[in-house]
User: What shape does this take?
Amino acid sequence: MSLRLFVALDLPEAARGALAAFRDAADAEVWRPVPDSSFHVTLAFVGHREAADVERCTAALSGVEVPLAPPLALGRAVVLSRVLAVAVEDPSGALGTVQAAVSDALAGAGVYEPEARRFRPHVTVARQRKGARPSRRAAAGPARVEFAGGPVVLYRSILGRGPANYEPLWSSG
Assistant: This one.
């Protein structure tokens, strides 16, 4: 059986609340909202893997040093390939270090091919509706919220009718 896997940083309630308020103010004719429970910062999209690879992923991730609370902040709104997202500011560079360690560990376990593009931490809050055209003016973004990053989590993404559901399979904290 094939599972769709990704590794993400979870977010605290204060950040989720600000993201939800920003998402709810977006033009509903253009943007289809992502549920609050789906807010996260993707560190590595592993993709479709065999069930046996979950153990390889968790073993690799168990060896990654995760700082107990990298200082982060919600930044500006961005539109990335048909999604409305919010940039996550990483002033200490700790999140970038965690992402690189996650990527290296999964690649070393043979379950992940690191992306060539630079890591851009963000949270997707809405997806563009089919045929809709977003405004060229960028939205201001959510209220600025500074927060400590949550645990790193290996998720299974379950696709079906409606939004994807995310099942946690392993967590660093």
